[in-house]
Amino acid sequence: MAAEYLDIDLNFQHEVIAEMLRRERMIRDRANPFVMYDDLDFLDRFRLSKAGVIELMRIVGNHLDEGRRGIDIPPMMQLLVTLRYFATGSYLRLVGDSFGMHITTVSNIVKKVSRNIASQRAMYIHYPDERQRLNTQQQFFRLCRIPGIIGAIDCTHIPIISPGGQNAEIFRNRKGFFSVNVQGGLLLILACCKNSSVSEFYL
Known about the structure:
Layout: H1 2-30, H2 33-36, H3 39-46, H4 50-60, H5 75-88, H6 92-99, H7 103-118, H8 121-124, H9 130-144, E1 152-159, E2 179-186, E3 188-189, E4 201-202
Antiparallel strand pairs: 1-2, 3-4
């Protein structure tokens, strides 16, 4: 009698767990960030607009396969996982949890997508020639009356999770949160017109 009850109870538990997993898989499959989030929420989570992600996908998508060992992860999902990792400064495991992926899968995706994005650098990062440098100096002089400027450097704080340990407070910035200070430069800036439009810039 007790054995029969245990068998029934265990079978019921297995059925409940199987149903929960089936529902979770359905929810996860339908969880499309482009549909789930409005434009502002999407930008907040991925640090790129929906149009920006689509454009980046156009550039790197052909270089992303759909995974190995029978795990089909569409190129767009790989890109979103990577952008989420970049945007949050979070741990791979936490990003994986939010997408329903194992930490190893997330690690492989981030590595692959990052390399593919970096491989396109020659299309977007280039240094000015002599004529462009002279033109930049002239435009900077017209803008701020300082001679000889060929570029400008700025920094931004990228939020991170506290690294922990004795030196964690080194990463706390003046605004009170943990961050890494990232530096970016503009080697050529064309002066802004009165209508605030900028026609060209070089990284």
